[in-house]
Amino acid sequence: xxxxxxxxxxxxxxxxxxxxxxxxxxxxxxxxxxxxxxxxxxxxxxxxxxxxxxxxxxxxxxxxxxxxxxxxxxxxxxxxxxxxxxxxxxxxxxxxxxxxxxxxxxxxxxxxxxxxxxxxxxxxxxxxxxxxxxxxxxxxxxxxxxxxxxxxxxxxxxxxxxxxxxxxxxxxxxxxxxxxxxxxxxxxxxxxxxxxxxxxxxxxxxxxxxxxxxxxxxxxxxxxxxxxxxxxxxxxxxxxxxxxxxxxxxxxxxxxxxxxxxxxxxxxxxxxxxxxxxxxxxxxxxxxxxxxxxxxxxxxxxxxxxx
Amino acid sequence: xxxxxxxxxxxxxxxxxxxxxxxxxxxxxxxxxxxxxxxxxxxxxxxxxxxxxxxxxxxxxxxxxxxxxxxxxxxxxxxxxxxxxxxxxxxxxxxxxxxxxxxxxxxxxxxxxxxxxxxxxxxxxxxxxxxxxxxxxxxxxxxxxxxxxxxxxxxxxxxxxxxxxxxxxxxxxxxxxxxxxxxxxx
Lengths: 307, 186
What we know:
The structure holds 2 protein chains of 2 kinds.
Chain A: H1 5-45, H2 49-79, E1 82-84, H3 91-104, E2 110-114, E3 121-125, E4 131-136, H4 137-142, H5 145-160, H6 163-191, H7 200-243, H8 246-258, H9 296-305
Parallel strand pairs in A: 2-4
Antiparallel strand pairs in A: 1-2, 3-4
Chain B: H1 2-57, H2 64-83, H3 86-107, H4 111-114, H5 117-152, H6 156-160, H7 175-178
Helix pairs in contact in B: 1-2, 1-3, 1-5, 2-3
């Protein structure tokens, strides 16, 4: 890949329109997932109860989609204990963000700081007009200017690509599905005794319901991961094209990876938003299946190949 | 039967014209929006310069030609901002950049000036603004290239002129000096 800006700009417009379809597709998949889950669990509790559970499930997934569209970014920022910067704070950071936003042709997003010494950053919001970017204190302290520019350019690419809306939606929907599955799993576990006089059909339904309650959150997580890993590479590339200095981001990623401190305000739902996995305890058992981010070495290798 | 075929062909052509026309309007609109971004930053640069000149003047009293040059260059750049084409504005900005460079060269001879907070703030502000101009310019030129390319490729080039679409100008600053000017050493 060369450092000419044209392919990247084109891909940003393309990514933006692809993300619009992806958003609709995701909502549909999640709604279907919740509906199937609700149907079988409803059947499990009372034959014919599956249909009754459907409107409830659809209202829930529709409701959380609406909430995440309008307030998902605020929920995520509040959960991450991010504080919005005043107009005179961190002028250097503000200048970097304003410059790079001009380079992408998007409005300057709102700027938040998370008072945590682990270096990391994320962007969120509904569209470039309603976007926020959050960086940790550790990122400001530990990175030099070119590295900081690399990280900010990566995050702003997520904004320009309209990744942020998909990501917010995914975070909230995965959270909802996980919550729902968890709740059903518990109620099935405690409620089993009532239905001992079931026939064979009931047993099959029960097996399907239990399997779904286990599988749904896993499927939901896998969707989230598949979605977020691809776009990290794309944001790395378009970020590097924006700064025209790939080594900046590469060096920042190296520093972030070398930092062993976990980011306390991040959790499994929001981890996918960050520029690098903020939870340092990746499960070894599933190996790379549940990594929210591509391996940092691979990202650095690709950035170095751009030179 | 023939009428149907003719109607289909006319309909397809009409659809093609509408789509192309709308695409050109979108691309031209993007160029205009990008230009507005540059304009804001150039105005900001023009606003910072009088203060800078005043601050440096207070210490470097014997350098009136330098100050006069930069003040004139600024006035020319502001005047160009009112009506001139991107090419003319770029020229005026390049002259201003050169003049500004000599102000900073003068400032380097006055160590007391380097310690003045206002001077530091102004030069940092100017550096940041130059940076923003550079990025806004890149975005603008990218949009101009996209627009001009689609104007000049077949078959759009055949009828673009009829609809009043004309190529837009690039905004080219003297590349080598553009980032150097505000790099003030303290």
